[in-house]
Design brief:
The complex is a heterodimer of chains A (176) and B (660).
Chain A lengths: L1 H4 L2 H18 L18 E3 L6 E3 L8 E6 L4 H15 L4 E6 L3 H11 L6 E4 L3 H6 L6 E5 L5 E6 L4 H17 L2
Parallel strand pairs in A: 3-4, 4-5
Antiparallel strand pairs in A: 1-2, 3-6, 6-7
Chain B lengths: L1 H29 L2 H30 L6 H6 L6 H6 L5 H22 L5 H25 L24 H30 L4 H32 L10 H26 L3 H24 L12 H25 L14 H31 L9 H21 L10 H27 L4 H25 L5 H7 L2 H26 L1 E7 L4 E4 L2 E12 L3 E12 L2 E13 L5 E4 L1 E3 L4 E10 L5 E9 L1 H17 L9 H4 L14
Antiparallel strand pairs in B: 1-9, 2-3, 3-4, 4-5, 5-6, 7-8, 8-9
Helix pairs in contact in B: 1-2, 1-6, 2-5, 2-6, 5-6, 5-7, 6-7, 6-11, 7-8, 7-9, 7-10, 8-9, 8-18, 9-10, 9-12, 10-11, 12-13, 13-15, 14-15, 15-17, 17-18
The chains are: A alpha/beta (176), B alpha+beta (660).
Chain lengths: 176, 660
């Protein structure tokens, strides 16, 4: 019986190895394919810094970016100035403030500037879960009818915008 | 021609490693003296050929041989020589070669310094290390050949090293970190040899200890260098991000810390042998797991290498062989009957094991947080990310509870102690620590911050309890000088490492609590104040470096009108790749760091500027350095050089039966 206990570490390792083997077949950056060309999930969440509950229908209607951000996310700081630049160019950007603290988020926008039309407060990460957010920052391109057309994981910068996102946005705008 | 020589040397090294893993091991079972005696020579040969191979790759980098694919993609003729050399390991293939080189250095070191060991033990230890080397050499040769050529279409210049890596940090951080990471292979090899020989005893623990302490000290230093590098190079002033790759190096450190303490119990009291062996396997397994996580692409991270599934499969199979094999061996051969518990709850033995509980919990916590996104993904539960909130929420309380015991530990006696004695010895330090915690934050900041107060209480308790222990050790000495001389280097090493831990606690908490950071729009001529410092943006200049051009923001910082520092932050554009990099200006000090980083230009002459004042930041790294020095100091202990006298006993595992 005592000998049996000594097999415990081996058992745990086998479980871990199976997990890692499964992990090799998964791409941590891949969007669950189900969500591409699917409508943006329904939600009913507060707006950052306002006494208002927002639902899906109020944010769809034009081609827009949905940017998942948080104050705890280092890379979000990196992309923040560029989002500001895009906003001044008239690109509509909605923020999804993901698993964050409201006060910290407001202070951040005050200090660094606010590129967002508005930021949806996703404190519990429920919208993030529906979207399949892996981490922040992530940026979704949503078309006029509210369908997700593209997902970018990581920082949006000059190159990502001009090589990937802008062509998609332009095409979607031209579609009809 | 030279790259081909390097490739050949690597193949020869593989042959030697194969011989090393087979012949001495066979000899140790057949009691074949010559076979066993071959081990040290094979180990040194392995080192020589890996070193030749590494030298050939370095030669290709230093001489801009862009026909070598690795050089063409990771170097550039304009790169300063020191960075050309460091570029050797600034990529997957080269860093893997560095891994193997450092493994062969450790193997050769064991061969040279462990001659007093009984031959069968030495043979088995080296054979196990040889086996690990076989795996990594195969990995390098089969999936990650660093010498692959780009012929005949050799590019005229290289596409440059990632600018983030063009830094003194790349020159020193990876080699030191790998020394630590890979160094646990020695403790692992000793543990496996002990399991094979069925000889788990105090002398096994004594042989392992100096090697484990050295590896642990290198790893402390390596992690500290990584944190320091991230702080000034990533450009945002953070010093720890709980990134998967950081965690990959932190987990072996946590497990290694547990191992260092558990080995002490096993050596001094002959207890918990199975547990210590398991920890030794665990620490090295975590090093291997870290290698897997960093190089297979299963997790996203800021500094993961380019992902490649075949590499992932290879390492996973190797992990299964090494870890799975050693845990099977453990299950079959470790003493099943736990050593009779003949110590009381109130003893140093117990406190050291309590350390193990804390550090193992911490390790598993970090492991769980690191693998959680993968686990959820594999279960089809969607994509998750685990960030600093989780790690801080679990890690901080764990460490806060650890420290009170850490103060008692060194004061406690082996086997049996009493609360009344602890009260007598430690009541004064405890009260003084509480007093300092209540008072010092007021003095420093003029307000009471509970986190800072907690940190001061914990750190001063630790320091005062150590002092108390030193004083009681001197109590019976004829004089202070004589008493100090009589204490062993191990003791001083322990003191220094624990003191370093106290210093690091102060640094972590105070830097987090008292940091002020402002993101501003500033134009030349403007100033801004973060009390008591006044930052003045003097001018904006264009400067040119060896392989980049930069906008430079020059600042003067004053305090009450007196000049404190002139600082120049840069926004660099690297010429070869066109990449833009933030080069922060940092004025370091014992009690505060001043930090300026440039964001983006906002219109005419104005820039987004980040100003930070970070009090006590350097204490974090000073503490880590003290811990590392403490670890190194223990090597001077004479008792580790008396192994020969203990080695004259016969070895039950030397025959084929190898019964426990």
């Amino acid at each position: 019986m005592a000998r049996f206990k000594l097999f415990l570490p081996l058992g745990l390792f086998v479980a871990l190895a199976l997990l890692l083997a499964r992990g090799l077949q998964l791409d941590p950056k891949a969007l669950p394919s189900a969500l591409i060309d699917q409508p943006l999930p329904e939600f009913s969440l507060p707006v950052l810094g306002a006494e208002q509950i927002l639902s899906r229908s109020e944010v769809v209607g034009e081609v827009a970016l949905f940017n998942v951000w948080a104050t705890w996310c280092i890379s979000c700081r990196v992309e923040h100035p560029y989002l500001g630049h895009l906003a001044t160019q008239g690109v509509p950007i909605y923020g999804i403030n993901y698993k964050d603290d409201d006060a910290a988020a407001l202070q951040w926008l005050q200090q660094l500037g606010d590129p967002y039309r508005l930021s949806i407060v996703d404190a519990e990460g429920s919208l993030g879960l529906d979207l399949g957010v892996y981490g922040a920052p992530e940026t979704y391109v949503v078309d006029r009818s509210g369908v997700i057309r593209y997902r970018h994981v990581g920082v949006v910068d000059e190159r990502v915008w001009s090589e990937i996102l802008e062509p998609i946005v332009t095409r979607l705008r031209g579609d009809g | 021609m030279i790259p081909e020589l390097g490739h050949l040397a690597l193949i020869i090294a593989l042959g030697l490693a194969l011989a090393l893993s087979v012949i001495p091991m066979w000899g140790s079972y057949k009691n074949h003296f010559q076979a066993m005696a071959l081990a040290p020579s094979l180990a040194i040969g392995l080192f020589v050929f890996v070193a030749i191979s590494f030298g050939c790759l370095a030669h290709a980098f230093l001489n801009d041989d862009f026909s070598v694919s690795l050089v063409a993609t990771h170097s550039n003729s304009m790169l300063p020589s020191a960075f050309k050399f460091a570029a050797v390991w600034g990529n997957h293939e080269g860093s893997l070669l560095l891994w193997v080189l450092i493994l062969s250095i450790w193997t050769a070191a064991v061969a040279v310094f462990s001659t007093p060991l009984p031959l069968p033990v030495l043979a088995r230890v080296l054979a196990v290390m040889g086996f690990v080397a076989v795996g990594f050499l195969l990995f390098s040769l089969l999936t990650s050949n660093p010498f692959a050529r780009l012929l005949p279409s050799t590019p005229s210049d290289g596409s440059d090293l990632n600018p983030l890596l063009q830094d003194i940090g790349l020159v020193i951080h990876p080699p030191i970190l790998y020394m630590g990471y890979v160094g646990f292979s020695v403790a692992f090899a000793f543990a496996i040899a002990a399991l094979l020989g069925g000889r788990l005893d105090a002398s096994w623990a004594r042989w392992s200890r100096p090697w484990t302490n050295t590896a642990w000290a290198f790893l402390s230093l390596g992690i500290m260098l990584g944190s320091w590098w991230a702080y000034y190079e990533l450009g945002w002033g953070g010093w720890w991000f709980w990134d998967p790759v950081e965690n990959a190096s932190f987990m072996p450190w946590l497990a290694g810390t547990a191992l260092v303490h558990s080995l002490a119990v096993t050596e001094k009291r002959g207890l918990v042998k199975s547990w210590t062996v398991l920890l030794a396997i665990f620490a090295f397994s975590l090093s291997l797991l870290g290698t897997f996580l960093v190089r297979s692409g299963v997790l996203t991270s800021v500094h993961a290498f380019a992902a490649d599934p075949t590499r992932g499969v290879f390492i996973l199979v190797f992990l299964a062989c090494v870890i799975g094999g050693s845990l099977t061996l453990y299950a079959l051969r470790a003493p099943a009957v736990s050593s009779r518990i003949n110590f009381s709850w109130l003893s140093r033995d117990c406190l050291l094991l309590l350390n193990n509980v804390f550090f193992l919990t911490a390790t598993l916590t970090v492991l769980f947080g690191t693998l959680f996104p993968l686990l959820m993904d594999a279960l089809g539960q969607g994509k998750y990310s685990v960030g600093p909130p989780y790690f801080n929420a679990v890690f901080v309380p764990l460490m806060a509870v650890l420290v009170p015991f850490m103060g008692i530990g060194p004061n406690a006696r082996w086997k049996q102690d009493s609360v009344s004695r602890w009260q007598r010895e430690l009541l004064v330090p405890a009260l003084v620590a509480l007093l300092l915690g209540a008072v010092l934050p007021w003095f420093h900041a003029g307000e009471f911050n509970p986190w800072v107060a907690l940190a001061v209480v914990l750190a001063s308790w630790l320091a005062l309890a150590m002092l108390r222990d030193l004083l009681s050790k001197l109590r019976h000495a004829s004089g202070v000088g004589a008493g100090l001389r009589r204490l062993s280097p191990s003791y001083y090493g322990m003191q220094l490492a624990h003191l370093g831990f106290a210093v690091a606690i102060m640094g972590v908490v105070l830097a987090t609590q008292y940091s002020v950071e402002l993101d501003l729009k500033m134009s030349p001529g403007e100033s801004h104040e973060i009390a008591p410092y006044r930052f003045r943006f003097d001018s904006l200049e264009q400067v040119r470096g060896a392989n980049y051009v930069a906008d430079e923001a020059r600042f003067t910082v004053t305090r009450g009108g007196a000049l404190v520092a002139t600082m120049a932050a840069q926004k660099r554009r690297y010429l070869a790749s066109g990449q833009v990099m933030t080069e922060a200006a940092i004025d370091a000090g014992v009690f505060r760091d001043l930090f300026i980083a440039m964001g983006d230009p906002i219109g005419d002459q104005a820039w987004a500027i980040r100003l930070q004042v970070k009090p006590f930041l350097r204490w974090i790294w000073a503490g880590a350095i003290a811990m590392a020095l403490g670890g190194f100091l223990t090597l001077a202990d004479r008792r580790y050089r008396r192994a020969r006298s203990a080695a004259t006993l016969t070895l039950p595992g030397a025959n084929a039966s190898g019964a426990i």
